[in-house]
Specification:
alpha+beta; hypothetical protein PF0899 fold; 28% helix; 29% strand; Phage major capsid protein; Peptidase_S78_dom; peptidase activity; Phage_capsid; viral release from host cell
Length: 624
């Protein structure tokens, strides 16, 4: 009978394994294929013997395949033509996946061949991490894969042939250690055997070997396998496979590899800090942004986070460190760079099914601010400056240039407009949202989107409130109400301004030569309800109500927000309110406030400041 050691060696020689996948359906409009890539019932001959892929709970690692894994051509990692949209194990113990073709000319060409029946074969690539020898067949030992991982799906010209063995060695097979448990008669306990292996086609004479001893105990075996996997995954994601290979063979830790990646990351997009400027990100590629997970970052921030959680978030931690260096500030927890925010908080309805917006192909530099703007009435009307670094001063003209009447040949007197500056300094906006333990355990795109949407909502509410009522003290920016120099009108009755009092607000601004045509009102739902029934001129029904069709008051647009206190009315040119936002969203966790329910409070910090270009452009009305 084949020994466990021989099975381990054969598995490792094979590297990534391949199996034929069945095409269940094709949806041309959505450019998708539905596949069945594995089955519990199938026995397939490999170099190591006869293999059964287990499909019981916990036996299949679907995270990698389900996290937007690649759809390749002929298992070539340099030839990606699409993405895996979803993967699951059904009740009939079959692995299923839905893949979507991209829109590049190459992907379009392959899709046409598939639809025309020219390319009919699909294959799945997978890694076997642990097996159990359960019997013997004529072709060799019968073993069951109790821990295996599909990693990619390919459109292939020649499918894997089970009759001659489906194991195929890559030029550089992964260095994962395989574990085999062999049951033999008279041996009640399992025998776990491992053996380190060098890269394929490599000269091992002078190759540094890993310093960790992976053969001492089962724990050390698991640790070595985890070390190799995290470094390999991070190297693949970031596009530094050669560097990852060096760190694996030298026995370096994932943390050391993370620091090396950080160096390359920060060298990629250096940014001087000597003067204020805007910055859109730290230079992440589209693939890197897709890989970023806010939920994974949150898990790593928890006080009881395991080493596995922290290793899984190595990429997010590296991005945070690079963002700190780029933006010139220290994070309280993890700093989410602007590159990620621009894509990650896109809330456009996806056309490719749930979570489709997470893998969008277009990236707009201001999309995070645009989405936040859509959730706040203030940002929809104010002037927003995003991605700032350092303190910012904006020149403002206080007076006007003089004009003179002159005679023929005379020169006008020199006139110099009065200038000053309005200042912006970062002030930390803090907001929080609570998520349940079960939601935090999820790794699906939809769960990720729920967390992101909640964070946006709490930030939007606080931006609305602070832009109006920020006190200017206790680390708060100064809101419109507390700016000295704005106009004010006293109402006779709280929450029931008369039409004449509203016109008085308009008149005060007009007398200061502000841009009246750009004005609009803002108040809460209570005043809107009053204005819908109150006549402009009491006892004269023909005058109409204060609230007009088209959501206007006296012809001016009116915004309604319950962030505005009862009885308050604001009128002004909101474009003269400037909202400054500094790069990066700082995120940390509070695991104690909801400790009895197992939930977690997520706290976010965004550096924001407000200032007004012309105070005479605003008027505040309230009962005395």
């Amino acid at each position: 009978m084949t020994t466990a050691t021989e099975v381990v060696r054969d598995l490792r020689k094979g590297g990534t394994q391949y199996r034929h996948a069945d095409v269940l359906s094709i949806d041309e409009p959505s450019r998708t294929l539905e596949l069945a890539f594995s089955s519990e019932a199938a026995e397939v001959q490999t170099w190591s013997g006869v293999e059964i892929l287990g499909h019981r709970p916990g036996e299949v690692r679907l995270h990698r395949l389900g996290d937007s894994a690649a759809l390749l051509l002929d298992h070539n990692p340099r030839d990606q033509i699409g993405v895996v949209q979803s993967a699951s194990i059904d009740r009939d113990q079959r692995g299923r996946a839905i893949v979507r073709f991209g829109r590049s000319p190459r992907a379009e060409e392959i899709l046409r061949d598939v639809l025309d029946g020219i390319r009919k074969h699909v294959s799945v690539g997978y890694l076997v991490h642990q097996v159990e020898v359960i019997g013997q067949r004529d072709a060799g030992p019968l073993y069951r894969a109790t821990d295996w991982e599909p990693i990619e799906i390919s459109i292939v010209s020649i499918p894997a042939d089970p009759s001659v063995g489906i194991g195929r060695a890559l030029e550089n097979p992964p260095q994962d250690t395989a574990t085999v448990s062999q049951h033999t008669p008279g041996t009640p306990e399992d025998k776990t055997m491992t053996e380190p292996s060098p890269p394929a086609h490599a000269d091992t004479t002078n190759t540094p070997q890993p310093t960790s001893n992976a053969t001492d105990t089962p724990n050390s075996v698991d640790a070595e396998r985890t070390r190799v996997r995290h470094i390999a995954d991070l190297g693949k994601t970031y596009g530094h496979l050669e560097l990852a290979h060096d760190y694996i063979t030298q026995g370096q830790s994932p943390e050391a590899f993370q620091r090396a990646l950080l160096t390359k990351l920060t060298d990629k997009a250096p940014m001087p800090q000597s003067e204020p400027h805007t910055q859109t990100g730290i230079g992440l590629s589209t693939q890197e942004i897709r890989h970023y997970s806010i939920v994974r970052a949150i898990r790593a921030l928890l006080p009881n986070a395991s080493q596995t959680d922290r290793n899984a978030a190595a990429f997010e931690i590296a991005c945070s460190a690079a963002a700190e260096k780029t933006y010139g500030k220290q994070a309280r927890g993890l700093l989410i760079p602007s590159d990620v925010l621009n894509r990650a908080f896109s809330t456009t309805t996806p056309t490719d099914g749930p979570g489709g917006n997470i893998i969008a192909t277009e990236l707009h530099a201001s999309s995070f601010i645009e989405i936040l703007r859509n959730k706040t009435w203030v940002m929809q009307r104010a002037t927003v400056m995003g991605g700032l670094v350092g303190n910012v001063d904006i020149p403002r003209q206080k007076g006007t240039t003089q004009a003179y009447w002159v005679g023929e040949g005379e020169s006008p007197e020199k006139s110099k407009p009065a200038l000053d500056q309005i200042h912006f300094t970062p002030k930390s906006l803090a907001a929080y949202t609570d998520i349940t333990r079960r939601l935090l355990l999820q790794s699906t795109p939809d769960a990720e989107q729920i967390v992101r949407s909640d964070l946006l909502n709490v930030m939007a509410l606080e931006v609305d409130r602070a832009a109006i009522y920020g006190s200017g003290s206790d680390m708060q920016p100064t809101g419109v109400k507390h700016h000295s120099g704005i106009n004010a009108v006293s109402f006779a009755q709280k929450g029931q301004p008369s039409f004449a009092e509203l016109v008085q607000m308009e008149t005060q601004i007009a007398l200061n030569n502000a841009d009246v045509n750009a004005m609009s009102y803002a108040f809460n739902a209570g005043i809107r309800g009053y204005a819908k029934t109150a006549l402009k001129f009491p006892q004269t029904a023909a005058s109409g109500t204060i609230w007009e069709s088209g959501n206007t008051v006296n012809g001016y647009p009116a915004s309604v927000s319950n962030q505005i206190k009862a009885g308050d009315v604001f009128f002004g040119n909101w474009a003269d309110l400037i909202i400054a936002m500094w790069g990066g969203l700082d995120i940390t966790v509070d695991p104690y406030s909801l400790s009895t329910s197992g939930g977690t409070r997520i706290v976010v910090f965004q550096d924001v400041d407000f200032n007004i270009r012309r105070t005479e452009s605003f008027c505040y009305g309230a009962a005395a």
